[in-house]
Amino acid sequence: MTDLISMTAVEAVDSLRKGETKPADFVDAAYARIAAVDGPVNALPTLCPDRAKAAAKSPTLKDSLLKGLPVAVKDLNEVAGVRTTFGSPIFADHVPARSDIFIETIEARGGITIGKSNTPEFGAGANTFNEVFGKTRNPWNTAMTCGGSSGGSAVALATGMAWLATGSDLGGSLRTPAGFCNVVGFRPSPGTVARSSSTMPFDHLSVQGPMARTVEDVALFLDAMAGQHPEDPISRPAPATGYLDQVRNPKAPKRVALSPNLGFLHVDPRVTEVIAAAAGTFEAMGATVEEACPDLTDTPDIFQTMRAVIFVAGHALDLENHRDKLKPDVVWNIEKGMALTADEIGKAERARAALYARVAAFFGEYDLLACPTAIVPPFDVDQRYVAEVNGHRFENYIDWLAMSYAITCTSCPTISVPCGFTDDGLPIGIQLVGRPRGDGELLGMAHLFQQASGISTKPIDPKG
């Protein structure tokens, strides 16, 4: 069991392909590991062993991409017949009849859902806790947060309860927990992964994406996710050359822009110290490193406005019918959206158009933008959000996430890769941003960085 848990996803799929192991072996190993380590961290509160074990017997798995490898699914993604709560008391007993098309695609390509990973209510906030399942803790120090909103997925990966896990990302929900837990989280370009949406199918801000322990594994998982679907109007075909193939034939960056604060953010010195050391890693890869960044100073206004619109579209009826069951942060977001004027929304759209033009020009000069994944290391799990850094106080619960949501506004693909640790052993992630629609190219560069950094991502036991 230990040998199976220690495998990368690529190694596991190769073992399944050769017939050295069976899907049931990995399903059993996953549940044994969950029983051994999930107690202190609370990453996978909902399990579906009967469903998983039945799926492991399917004869179609041998011809599939993932060959029957187990997958942890974020509790924002519906899975047919499996309790899906969205982290909300409103949906505490919800069992969907159909899976998200995102999950249907993964399972059709050989992934086996083993359970649901914990998330904050409706994915709002970057500390994973809710009134249904409670707190998910960071395995590197269980007194600390694992980040969010894909916190349960990141913890499941870091502790070896899963080889692959799904994440979603609006303002950093996939990247922040990856950075906090020493794993990899990739936010693909909008439309790369088809997703279900009953309220905003044309939205370009929120995406689904892969999480794993290595960039190679993330690329494999993206191959199992990507492609066009008639129910998603912005989805696009998978590339002619698969993402894993692109990672295995990478193009090294020649010119890297390294920014400690995106030109306008307050960042904890413990973070900037680790990120600064990454310059040497890029130089060892043969790149020229310069401190540079496109102008992103108006992204807080752009993002806050557009996010509020999304909350109105998705949750106005929840506010009307179940206000007493919503956490204050979600209520604030919905009401902020309801108070917006058409002029404010139009202004944000125009500002984002100008932003995209600046970013496209920037990537005409640079191959890669590198910056911290988050402005702080993991913090106290009982602290709802970061309220202050370096004497600067934030106005609301998402202001501290500008390092990630500023990049969301650009529509560029972006990935969090392990970069190092603080003096007291807390993980720090580096965010690597690629040129527009350059998903495969970015994954290749991130793979080269992860190889050059030499940071281990082997599963760990939770540390108290």
The helix content is 25-40%
Calculate the mean pLDDT score and round it: 97
Number of helices: 15
CATH superfamily: Amidase signature (AS) domain
Question: How would you characterize this protein structure?
Answer:
It is a single chain. By secondary structure, this protein is of the alpha+beta class. The protein contains 15 helices and 17 strands. An eleven-stranded mixed β-sheet has the order 1-3-2-8-10-9-16-17-13-11-12, with helices on both faces. A two-stranded antiparallel ribbon has the order 4-5. Helix 10 (269-284) links the parallel strand 11 and strand 12 (288-290). Helix 6 runs parallel beside helix 7 and helix 11 packs across helix 12 (328-338). The model has no long low-confidence stretch (mean pLDDT 97).
Brief overview:
With 464 residues, this protein is α+β, with helices and mostly antiparallel strands. It has helices at residues 2-6, 9-18, 23-37, 49-55, 101-108, 151-158, 175-181, 215-225, 243-248, 269-284, 299-322, 328-338, 342-362, 402-408, 439-453; strands at 46-47, 69-74, 111-117, 129-130, 134-135, 137-138, 141-145, 164-169, 184-187, 207-212, 255-258, 288-290, 368-372, 388-389, 392-393, 414-421, 427-433.
